[in-house]
Amino acid sequence: MELSTYAKNTWCPGCGNFGIFTALKEAVSFLIKKGIPKENFVIVGDIGCGSKIIDYLNLNSFSALHGRAIASGEGIKLGNPKLKVIVSIGDGGAYNEGISHLIHSAKRNIDITILVYDNRNFALTTSQFTATSPKGFKGKSTPEGSTENPFNPLKLMLASNATFIARGYSFKTEHLKNLIIKGIKHQGFSFIEILQPCVSFFDTTEFYNKRVYEIKETDLDSKEKALKKIEEWNYNENDKKIPIGIFYKIKKPTYLN
Ligand SMILES: Cc1ncc(C[n+]2csc(CCOP(=O)(O)OP(=O)(O)O)c2C)c(N)n1
Ligand code: SF4
Prior knowledge:
The protein is α/β, with parallel strands linked by helices. The protein has helices at 17-33, 53-56, 69-79, 91-97, 99-107, 153-159, 173-185, 205-211, 223-230; strands at 41-45, 60-63, 84-90, 113-118, 164-169, 190-195, 212-214, 242-249.
């Protein structure tokens, strides 16, 4: 299934977005082969480097204002519930500018999939700190280093009653592809945080390659177990292990049924 377009790719060579592009393209191709009509997919982009993916994928798409892609995705789903809505949004859009939409979307369990391209900075605007930047992060708005501790977005999603919570890594594309397939198939709100190195402003590739490991996905309906796993890494630089996979998954009525 050819899902690429003729649009010129403007990502920096080595950017983690390439891995996400491959994983998402393969996940959607797989689901189309399994019988979901191609025209039922809608990719909603935010504003940012990762959100440019909507230009590179030959699928229905919508380009939202910065921080408003989740709200736009909800509107699209409400307008036509048979659509498979996939929101592509950066950490700046999801965890800073649009954080209220993320929380309320999770709370109401609307059946859409959120992919957060978390490069831990506002990259398109050449690097300002975000909610997941580590303490001491040096960017354009924090030349002396950020004084704030990052938050853990998976913990926030657990507290917001999200029904599917996962983390992938852009350079583990096969694993990420399977997470995306499971997220799209999940009946309800699915949240997938994607660790995405930004080679130009915050190159975390080596850091993640040393620490990322795949978790055993058992007892997925236990909030206590999910929290314990999620807290293995709190976005600090000193921690030795970073778990990826599905942390939490439960069945619950969705916003529409
Ligand atoms: C409401 C609003 N605020 C600020 C901007 C400027 N702006 C454009 S892209 C961007 C950074 C995007 O960062 P992020 O969402 O993390 O995505 P990334 O570029 O890192 O993939 C900002 C701040 C904007 N377009 N609209
Ligand atoms: S600035 Fe960073 S996130 Fe944006 S394309 Fe370049 S490497 Fe990727």
